[in-house]
Amino acid sequence: MLQKPLIFLFSILTFVRLEYAFGQSKTTYKQAEILWDTWGVPHIYAKNDESLFYAYGWAQTQNHGNLILQLYGQARGKGAEYWGEKYAQADRWVITNSIYERATEWYALQKPAMRKNLDAFATGVNEYANEHPDKLSNEAKRALPVTAIDLIAHAQRITHFVFLAPQARVAAAEKMQGDKNGSNAWAVGPSKSASGNTLLLTNPHLPWSDLYLYFEAQLVSPGVNTYGISRMGFPVLTMAFNETAGYAQTVNTNDGQDFYELTPAEGGYKWDGKIKAFETKERMLRIRQPDGTLKEEKMVIRHSVHGPVVSEKGRKLIAMRVAGLGQSGILEQYWDMARAKDLAAFEAAISRLQIPMYTLMFADNKGNIFNLFNAVVPVRPLGDWNYWSGVVRGDTSATLWTQTHPYKDLPKVRNPATGWLQNTNESPWTATVPMANNHKDFPAYMAPGPSMSFRTQRSVRMLMESDKITLDKFIELKLSTRMELADRILKDLIAAANLNGSPEAKEVATVLANWDHNTDNDSKGAFLFDRFVRKWVGGTEKLNSLGTSSTLFATPWNLDDPVNTPNGLADTKAALNALLEAAKEVKATYGRLDVAWGEVFRFRIGGVDLPGNGGPGPMGVFRTMTLGAPTDGKYLPAHGDTYVAAIEFSKPLKAKVLTSYGNASQPDSKHNNDQLPLLSEKKMRPVWFTRKEAEQHLVEKTVFK
């Protein structure tokens, strides 16, 4: 008799609790304030985490609203629907890989507290847009309103399907081509630092536009005080430090994307001697036309046991399998990593392996330095790295993997005797030298064998040759523009030019002999050498293969002497011909051979146009800057140093940073190029970590009540 009244009473109480919780969440969203400093960096102080996330969503929208709305729209697979044909190819990749559907599933799997945080961030985005509609473009506002599912879809798209499994790699799979995205990271322990404090370097270098941009911020709430950068549109910091610990990440050599060639057959594809049917689904791609109408394109997506079919050329079908799609906690893990105050807490977070790639570099004020080859690595039944870098057979279960390696299996280094750790996007074996891990102790498919690019060698050399490093020295090393390749071959090259004896060769020899081997603003000879290298290797596209596997050197790379080889010229005649040809072109374009590096390489955004410094990573420049296509004889960075943070875990904390392109992309912001002068002058800004410091440099305050 009492059952129905009890159920009714329970329902009423449940409703009251939900109403109370909803009311509380609405009010707690706005217990925060943003202190905007002179560089457009938000220092967010909140009374609880939901308010912190709300304010962070607001802050990102204020500085980058047009861009993040565009990215969220693309993560839905609706970029073409909102903004036209140019986004159609990216939408096809999103739709083919079920990114938005999977994000919906991941949202349901979030822990309640994290789900509230993500909802709060999305609310911050929407409420900024509602209160400042004139600050956003009409085109960007087509993606409104934003939900937490959009945030998850965006994080998944960028992490899993731009960095881990990019669309461009489908066409390149058979050629086994690598990617160009990169970063530097260092950690220096007490035995190597002058003060006995640990030092950490964070230094991604990626394209200076679109999804690759970073946003610099400080996030403070009860128990949280963390500073760093977010990948654009992410609701959490993706590289961060707090008062006692911090970490950097670099793109690593994890192969989490495998391609399988299927054998088509009537009714499906061949599988273990039988015919297996595809699972198919239909989706509609809508493409906005110039007149505002929508053209519809029906997509039929076929799934094999490996994953979706991503390429079809005649009778050749390629399916793709991606690791890490079952891990839904990527954003929560980043949140926990940023808050970790020591190595134990950091390892507790990263051992969950929710982030499918990136080398992680860590330091804390207890004297710990740590490097992890972080990856969701498939447990593969056969083959080595080269085998899985191409296209493998898809008609047999012998090549199908279903499990991934646990945390304990991954290469890692803690507190090495050398006192330092580094990563420059190479395989994990060169984290320190002498090498702490032997690649033969790990599966042959986990990472490529030992090798060292010239950038890696430059990185290792600077750390090996420096002792008792101060924070100022640490920064000086980071900002080094010296070209390691020049140190290896310039002597031979100058000798060959002098031996030739022609007026042209003698002039070339004089310019190169007077060059300081740096790529600073005023370095004369650097540009001539750069043009020579591109001709010598056979074109700009071959630069990435320059190094350990190259046959251009007299002495090839040797694992027993990994930092000083390769060196010398294998064919001095061919090298001299390339040099003279480069010299002819440089003189024809610029009127002289000793043109300064900063005269032709420029830091230019909007109305700011300044001399540039830094140079190509494949030539061994640690301050990496990739030269884009020339315009009127001038070169701009297509890719390169984007953010630098140099931190000493002292008491109090000491840190300097620079976000190269500025901390905003909105067209009316003064912060979309205001840090270029510091970049040109090879300077960094102090971090204003305390509230007092932020208030001393306060330009604007946003208060939520």
Overall description:
The chain folds into four domains: 28-175, Penicillin Amidohydrolase, domain 1 (Orthogonal Bundle); 182-253 and 325-478, Glutamine Phosphoribosylpyrophosphate, subunit 1, domain 1; 257-322, Penicillin G acylase, beta-roll domain, CATH 2.30.120.10; 484-621, Aminohydrolase, alpha-helical knob region (Penicillin amidase (Acylase) alpha subunit, N-terminal domain), CATH 1.10.1400. The chain is globular and about 70 Å long. The protein is 34% helix and 23% strand. The chain has a ten-stranded mixed β-sheet. It is of the alpha+beta class. α6 (112-131) packs across α7. β1 (32-37) and β2 (42-46) form a beta hairpin. Mean pLDDT is 94; it is low at 1-27 and 174-179. The active site is at residue 183. Pfam families: Penicil_amidase.
